[in-house]
Amino acid sequence: MTRCCNAEDRPIACEDFAVIIPARHASVRLPGKPLADIHGRPMIQWVWERACASGASSVIIATDDARVRDACAAFGAQVEMTGTHHPSGTDRLAEVAHRRGFAADAILVNVQGDEPLVPPEAIRSLAAALRQHPGCAIATPVTRIESLGQWLDPNCVKAVRALDGRALYFSRAPIPWPRDTPPPDEAGIAGALRHIGMYAYRADSLSRFASLAPTALEQRERLEQLRALDNGIPIRVWETKHASLRVDRPEDVHSVAERLQQYEVVRRELKSSGVLFKT
Question: How far is CA 94 from CA 121, 126, 130, in A?
Answer without folding.
Answer: 24, 19, 18
